[in-house]
Each structure stands twice: as structure tokens, then as C-alpha cells.
């Protein structure tokens, strides 16, 4: 009886312990569920700011013509945002030019990512990366998507050329296009690899650039649409709008169209609205403007050996500090530094 009684006591204690643990677990689950419900209620009542990917998606899907502005570093990204643009084009040409290298994938994608991180940190608007060909095959491209998402980049535009790429506006350059099926699978891999369903993948068709004509442009655009591209960027280096207009009419508004009117800049913007274009990219003008300004400034200082005729034409140091957000650092120093160190 003593043995049985001792065993009964131990079993009873174990059962009470298990019951108590289960009760605590149930309470924790209920608390978590209640907390989640409360969070949902708060979100519903206060509203939640859209993610950058969602903003870019809505711009591309909008029935109104939208615009994004080129930037190539943190400073130019801030300037584009302050100008009022809702999105930024991280131009491959501009980023490589700022590094002093050619737009032929001479800058590695990790170097581009470092620039993008500074741009993303300093802005609240979405960034669409000019991702060239994706820096290799589907595997390189989908890894690029992963790294872009980690840095808060909203989307990537991939062009259907071979790696390493050649800039589309380079005169006399031979433009070799990728196989349609291979590039379509690259697009699909990028879409399916994105952790965020709202991450935008834009397929850039280079058929006109390569001189292959409308039929090839339509065939490629449709293949990329079916592969899951969120929009089609139709590129042209003609100074008139004949190629783009022909594509738009034949395309029939079946999927969002993005354009880059760098060469056909005299076409009125209203024409783009009439064509139901979704997004216009002002693709390299901040970089080109800064090149001209630096050339003029350097030449003037070298020639005159003086700053008298330059200083009134350049940004003040105070303005540079403002763009760098030095006021935030001053406030942080007062809050976090010991009084003797301030």
C-alpha cells in the first residue's frame, strides 16, 4: 500500500503540474490572440503607411501618368524627393558615371547595392533600380532581388540583353539580345523569389534599340507579360516618337507601359497621357546637370584662380549641411552625449 500510495502521490503531482502548464499555455495563447486583435484594431483605426513597394506598384497601376526622377547617390536622392517626385530611378548609367566607370557592368552589383543603401536610408519614396541584365542568369538576378529587398528597394527593371550589357544610347554599339524564353524565365524567377508580393519587376524590351522592329518588340513584351512582369518598359533611341507610338497602338493597353523619353524629349507630355502610358522615367538628368555644373565650376576656378565668380552660383555650405540633416545630429548629441562632450 505504501508503494502504491507513493506512486499515486507522484502521479497526482505530475497530473497537476501538466494541467497547470496547459492552463498557462492557454492563457498565453489567448493573450497573444487578444494582442493581435488589438493590433489589428489599432491599425484599422489609425491607418498604416504604405510600404515603398506598394507605392511603386500603385504608381505603375495608376490610371494617371506618373513620373520618377533619376538619382545616383544619397544626396541626389534627397534632392529628387524634396522636388516633389513620388519615386526615384536609380540609373545604372548615372551610378556608374558617378564612380567614373563605363555603363558596361564595370561596377559590380555589390558596389551598386552600397550606393542604393545610402539612397534608401535618406528617402521615404520608392526606388526602382535600373538592374541592367540582372548581373548574370536567373540565379544572379533572383539573388539581386533578395539583396534589394533587404535594403528597402521597391523594384528592379531588367533589360533583355546579354551580360555584360552595352548602354542603349551608345552610338555604333552592337546590341545583342537575350533569348526570349531565357529572359522570360529570369523574370519569373525574380517574381517568384521576391519575399514581398508587391516588389515590382519591370521588363525592359530592347528590340527597337537592337533594330529588330515592332513585331519582335511585341513578341518579347507579351512573353515577359505572361512570365509575370509588372510592367513593360519599351525603349527607343529615336529622336521622334514613331517606334513608341507604333508599339502603344499595337499593344492595346493590355499591360502597364513605362517609357524613357531621353531621346524623344520634344514630344509633349500630354501625348504620353493620350497613349495611356503608366510611368515616365526622367532617366539621367541629375547626373548630367551635375557634370555640366562641375565642369563649369572647375574651368572657371582654374582659369581665374579665384572663387569670386563661382561662389554666388553654387550651393552654400549651410545648404549642404541641411541636405545632410545635420540638425538631427545636433539634437541627438544634446540627448545622448555627456554634457562635457557637447
Low-confidence stretches: 1-46
Q: How many strands appear in the DSSP assignment?
A: 8
User: How is the largest sheet built, in terms of strand order?
Assistant: 1-2-3-4-5-6-7-8
Instruction: Give the percentage of residues in beta strands.
Output: 5-15%
Q: Which class best fits the helix and strand makeup?
A: alpha/beta
What can you see in these coordinates?
The protein is built from 13 helices and 8 strands. It has 342 residues and is of the alpha/beta class. Strands 1-2-3-4-5-6-7-8 form an 8-stranded parallel barrel, surrounded by 9 helices. Strand 5, helix 8 and strand 6 (231-234) form a beta-alpha-beta unit.
Chart the SSEs and their pairings.
Elements: H1 2-46, H2 52-61, E1 66-71, H3 74-83, E2 88-90, H4 92-99, H5 109-121, E3 127-130, H6 138-150, E4 155-159, H7 180-193, E5 200-205, H8 213-227, E6 231-234, H9 242-251, E7 257-259, H10 269-274, E8 279-282, H11 285-304, H12 317-323, H13 326-336
Parallel strand pairs: 1-2, 1-8, 2-3, 3-4, 4-5, 5-6, 6-7, 7-8
